[in-house]
């Protein structure tokens, strides 16, 4: 199980990373492993205003549909178009090519309030 | 929580275990899609030891089974098996089952794990007037389903008895990897294969021999996607105490020329809704989702998944009878959006 040090993590198993004035978001290695084969991804529409903790995307595995939550508040400024044809990128590269969307944050500090890699690993191990 | 005799083997293979019908069962070992495709293209093995087995014996075993099941048991020769169902008094179903004729006056009935106690009580309540004995042998059998286009060939390498020329629904005793087993050329995947009944303390050796021969261990996740692609119903979803088989593609099971328990109730019920297959390009139907036509709700999804072979959403649904014809365009409501769906013939694959 991978827990990259450079990322921040939510209790609902999203990761987030500062990228210039945007925050890139995806699901963690643990999340993709729990979901199993991802076969369908529903992404938020561009320009949508989202609040931290709001369900804004859906990842469907063969077995079930799971909500994905915004880790920070702001505006959706980019989504990963590659996932429409290759949803399996979420399994193959959850921290890389399988990123889901980018948010331009409307509040400062929310990203810092997320868990560190070490804290998230502890959270997963307590599940 | 109960376990099957292969519990330790599942853990050793790293299976993801889930509770199912009171048993702790493997849902997947590696990936549902990979296991699904192994069965479609090669051979896979499922531990289905959770399923229930009843012996029905006695001079009137046939008459009893004719009374309590819907298919025609009189057609079963020794060494043959048939798919069937247990009707209730209201024209619904207690369970769907398989009946194997193992001797002149001896039958084996395989029932769904979740229904073992219900079926047992139901059958016991109907024995009056029949010279018949029932035995719940669910704890005495382990059951493996070896399925896929290569399944029979691989099983043949473990047995000296001819397995390749047997017909679908044949059943017989044979030695497999040195252990006595009851084999039946049956399954729940839409592929060729065998189901293998073994003593609980002997199943481990056969399981190991199958894995050593290259058969892929498969969990309940793939079992569900395979049966859906094959258009097979699952009790508790498509079939229930309330549903009539006459309103499903399995109406052929009901032999109206014989008498059976609850016949008048079943034959007298109209089909307000019918069970159909649905195919969706734009989403995955799931149990409980609403089915719509021209803004009105006309049905509900009973099972659905992403088809690993077709790579589209497939599902089964009860819809108002007027919209049940193949080719009918409907919509499935997925997270507040109506996604186009088409009524299609089942099986979805083959």
Distance between the termini of chain A: 14 Å
Q: What share of residues are in beta strands of chain A?
A: 25-35%
- The helix/strand class of chain A is alpha+beta
Q: Categorize the overall geometry of chain A.
A: globular
Oligomer: heterodimer
Helix content of chain A: 10-25%
- Largest pleated sheet of chain A: 6 strands, antiparallel
CATH fold descriptor of the largest domain in chain B: Gyrase A, domain 2
| Shape, principal axes of CA atoms of chain B | globular
SS elements, strand count of chain A: 9
What number of structural domains do the residues of chain B give?
Answer: 3
**Beta-strand percentage range of chain B:** 25-35%
Order of helices and strands of chain A: EEEHEEEEEHHEH
- The main sheet of chain B orders its strands as 10-11-12-9-3-13
Task: Report what the structure shows.
The complex is a heterodimer of chains A (127) and B (350). Chain A has 127 residues and is α+β, with helices and mostly antiparallel strands. Chain A has a single domain (8-125), classed as RNA polymerase II/Efflux pump adaptor protein, barrel-sandwich hybrid domain (OB fold (Dihydrolipoamide Acetyltransferase, E2P), Beta Barrel). Chain A is built from four helices and nine strands. In chain A, strand 6 and strand 7 form a beta hairpin. Chain B is an alpha+beta fold and 350 residues long. Chain B has three domains: 7-48 and 141-229, Probable tRNA modification gtpase trme, domain 1 (Gyrase A, domain 2, 2-Layer Sandwich); 52-136, Aminomethyltransferase beta-barrel domains (Alpha-Beta Plaits); 272-344, Elongation Factor Tu (Ef-tu), domain 3. Chain B has helices at 7-12, 32-41, 61-68, 116-124, 151-156, 203-212, 220-229, 263-267, and strands spanning 16-20, 23-28, 44-47, 52-57, 81-87, 93-103, 106-111, 133-136, 142-147, 171-176, 179-184, 193-198, 216-218, 273-280, 290-293, 296-306, 313-320, 329-334, 337-344. In chain B, a hairpin with a 6-residue loop joins strand 16 (296-306) and strand 17 (313-320). Chain B is globular. The two termini of chain B are 37 Å apart. In chain B, 47% of the residues are buried. The A-B interface holds A 36-37, 39-40, 42, 58, 60-65 and B 27-28, 31-34, 36, 221, 225, 283-284, 286, 305-306, 308, 311, 313, 335.
